[in-house]
Amino acid sequence: MSRFFTEKYAELVPYTPGEQPKDQQYVKLNTNESPFPPSPGVLAAVEAEAKRLQLYSDPESGEVSRAFAASLGLKQSQVLATNGSDEALNFAFMAFGRELAFPDISYGFYPVFAALNHIPYTEIPLREDLRIAAEDYEGLGKMIVIANPNAPTGLCLSLGEIEAILKANPDQVVLIDEAYVDFGAESAVKLLGEYDNLLICQTFSKSRSLAGARLGFAIGSEALIRDLNTIKYSTNPYNVNRMTAAAGLAALREDFYYKENARTIMENRAWTMAELKKLGFAGTDSRSNFLFVRHPALGGEALYKKLKARGVLVRHFKKPRIEDYVRITVGSREQMAVLLRETEAILKEAQA
Ligand code: PMP
């Protein structure tokens, strides 16, 4: 810390992103990226837009916002385009966070954004089976943040359970982070008409293969989105760059490609889980583009390190209750075959 860093942030422990190694080519299954490249229309749109980079981007991200809203049956005024959904989360915390509650095991950025914005927070323990129990979130008197599916467990709440949380907290914003919703969970978007306290975040980073472009959305009532715009225009009016907005619009036009890819990921997930079970693994019933698994004979950290030494990168969290697990992004069938081959060899080695 330099002697100029303000006391305001002296205690801040920043978020640690998943490794992005440059030393060698890994089978990269650690940051839940898509194994599929963006669709051809996205590449063409980005190239065309690059010719206009001398001009600022549209501060409203109008075209992509209208198209995204229309895809959900909503108005443009009910969505806000952001620089990845991380920015949507931060704006929401800034706008609505007096006190916060979120699960003790969830996306690691929630406590960081809370600390950044000096918002006190309570972590609600997951139940023994790593599930979020909706009744634990009733009448807390705090803004609630829940990833659905949750990360890194991949487990979902039903729409009925989310509705119960919304009903039990009518005077608090309930933020549902749907980063992984396209891999088998049910979106809360259909509840928007009934609950003015519902705010949703979605991202183009996962199912739409645009992690490197940074595009996310906040989705909510016109009033909530107006508040988020107040924050946005006080932070970074041109938060979505021209090439990203063009990429997002093109991706929406080729939605069939991304839906097909999501189906493939779900098939690969089921196949990989079945194969891992044959090797003695147990795991959660993930509805995300990752698996969360453990093996009785090998700790999570040991497995992570041994896989890394063999060129396969997965994610391990040094956190009580989940340190036995690794989180494995579901990639292509070929990537999963390498993961399984190397895992089997590691287990054989451990038994020998
Ligand atoms: N929410 C969750 C639960 C995530 O895992 C991630 C990805 N790390 C994000 C939000 C943010 O993703 P992005 O900023 O790429 O949209």
Structure description:
The protein is α/β, with parallel strands linked by helices. The chain has two domains: 126 residues, Aspartate Aminotransferase, domain 1, CATH 3.90.1150.10; 215 residues, Type I PLP-dependent aspartate aminotransferase-like (Major domain) (Aspartate Aminotransferase, domain 2). Helix content is 37%, strand content 13%. The protein has ten helices and twelve strands. It has a seven-stranded mixed β-sheet with strand order 2-8-7-6-5-3-4, sandwiched between helices. Strand 3, helix 4 and strand 4 form a beta-alpha-beta unit. Helix 1 runs antiparallel to helix 7. The longest helix has 24 residues. The model has no long low-confidence stretch (mean pLDDT 97). The structure holds 4'-deoxy-4'-aminopyridoxal-5'-phosphate. 4'-deoxy-4'-aminopyridoxal-5'-phosphate binds next to helix 3.
